[in-house]
Amino acid sequence: MKIYYVYILKCFDGSYYTGVTNCLERRFAEHTWGINVTCYTYTRRPVELVFSCEFKYINDAIAFEKQVKGWSRKKKEAIIRGKWNELKPLAECQNQTHSRNNNADEN
Questions:
Q1: pLDDT in tens, 68-91
Q2: Same domain, 84 and 65
Q3: CATH number, domain with residue 37
């Protein structure tokens, strides 16, 4: 049975790259060697593998990759640190005009 991986690389410039693969070692090597000159990581090497997560089904891996790509830097750093419990608070709107944060109704 194949295993699929969603992974996050930390690039030399401090940015993060999220991808999906069925062979983590090979894909990391490709990023490291700069196999594809059009890849985001090509000009941001060296890269460091900072997170990976296994999936049994490719559709689940692709869905999670898309989700992570849409996350803020803080949410990505939370899962890199293994702090999955921090995701919900980081997803909540912190804008002062948000109804939960707006105390105008109390006056």
A1: 999 999 999 999 999 999 888 888
A2: no
A3: 3.40.1440.10
